[in-house]
Amino acid sequence: MTAIRFTTLVNPSRDFAGARGAAWSAVFLVAGLANSPLVVATPGDAANFSATSVTVNESAGTVNLTVLRQGVGGGIASVDYSTSNFTAMAPGDYTTTAGTLSWGDGDLTPRTITVPIIDDAIHEGDESFYVALSNPQGLALGILPSEAVVITDNDAAPPAAAVTAPTLGGIASVLLAALLALTARASNRGPSRRS
Ligand SMILES: [Ca+2]
Ligand SMILES: [Ca+2]
Fold it and tell me: What is the pLDDT of residue 177?
């Protein structure tokens, strides 16, 4: 096999001027990058929630969400997290929570986010809010960068009697009484004005 010598391909006095020089510079740049340890391909880590949603009773006090660092654990890494309203609103239904999760080199241990849940006395049905990851450092956001928290209401609906609307008969009675009162007032005033 005959080795092709690089020096036979490149003639500095011939090849490093003008457009040809620019072309060779590009060749050297690509060759340099290909041999650089900076671009050696390694699988990147990703930050993901462990589930798309979690359900918690309104009386639970807190809810825990798990964030996974998935990959090879190369280098230090961190990711920020914060809550956001949906049908559940802070501060009435939960406490706004934000922070940063950090991992050391080689650390693939899951991290836990804890959000306080507020137990009110209002019947409001099940409500939800979100916790989302942002600002990844040393890793990427994975396919589950947010998780929904569903709060199960623990307050009973008001008694049915308390919200019973007046019946048509009831309304008719009120109108009839008012009409009779107006008629009586008019008949009392009539003669006094004429006299
Ligand atoms: Ca409650
Ligand atoms: Ca409630």
Answer: 63
Q: Is the whole model's pTM more than 0.85, yes or no?
A: no
Domain coordinates in residue numbering, the chain: 9-39, 46-152
114 Cα to the center of ligand 1, angstroms: 19
First-last CA distance in the chain = 138
pLDDT, average across residues 123-139: 97
Distance 53 CA to ligand 2 centre (A): 20
Q: Residue 4 has what pLDDT?
A: 39
The full DSSP string for 19-33 is HHHHHHHHHHHHHHH
In CATH, 46-152 is 3.90.1570.10: no
Q: Which of 80-89, 91-100, 112-121, 183-192 has the lowest mean pLDDT?
A: 183-192
Given a contact cutoff of 8 angstroms between Cβ atoms, the answer to whether 75 and 105 are in contact is yes
Instruction: Mark the residues whose beta carbon lies below 5 A from ion ligand 1.
Output: 58, 119, 154-155
Tokens representing 145? 């960068």
